[in-house]
Amino acid sequence: MNQRVIDLFDRYTHGDMDRRKFLEKLTILVGSSAAALALLPALENNYAKAELLPEGDPRITTETIAVPSGGKDYSIYLAKPTTGDKWPAVMVIHENRGLNPHIKDVTRRIAAEGFLAAGVDFLSPLGGTPTDEDKARELIGTLDAEATAAAGRDIIAALRARPDSNGKVGTIGFCWGGGLVNRLAASDPTLDAAVAYYGMQPAATEVAKIKAPLLLHYAGIDERINAGIAAYEAALKAEGKRYEIFTYEGVNHAFNNDTNTARYDKAAAELSWSRSVKFLHETLG
Q1: Residues 215, 275: contact at Cβ < 8 Å?
Q2: Do 104 and 174 meet the contact criterion of CB atoms below 8 Å apart?
Q3: What is the pLDDT of residues 9-30, one digit of tens each?
Q4: Calpha distance 178→172 (Å, rounded)
């Protein structure tokens, strides 16, 4: 697919324009409204593809729980292995579309790797993740950053205290969630591990506060996010932090999202996933 089309879609998904303006620009770019409409299924997430590890898989069990923070209850999709009684916990943080079927599937996949996996709906204070993705994106933009980070810290504490947790907690996040992972690493000294996929970096002045080891995945064709890598890495080096950075050349932002035909890259997704699982086992036990 034309990279200009993907770049335009990326701008739209990150709030630079509404759907009407996006379709107008896409029509101009591809030459007709018919061509624009024909491209949409490849550009938008298709949750019919979301279940790589379906509900009811015998390796895991799932349930929905709530954790309070700031006077609000945060809904959490909890998945864990069917064998064993204690596991390291991993908080899964969604993209700017909320806790959708894809992120629930990612949560189940992490559980199948031997973790107590918690997919958090950070839109819970606003009524939860809606089925309309554009509405979810709009709601994400209204969240209070400090309250959201505080909720993340409260959920980390709750996961650590659970009787089915081994007492160690890591987090993994994608896009908007990757940015929140970075913020939590800088604001929660109890965090044991942090994995961020193409997430916005924290301010260099915040890096000194990071205690957790970091695994940072970036897409080679992602100028918006990649613009912050150099300053982040320089600060991490200067502060002597434990981190690894991997940039996957020739792939787009959201390359791990297998429900998105235009941006998903199987090779990069599988390699980054294997690195993430290995890192989480090494850091969390």
Answers
A1: yes
A2: no
A3: 888 888 888 889 999 999 998 9
A4: 7
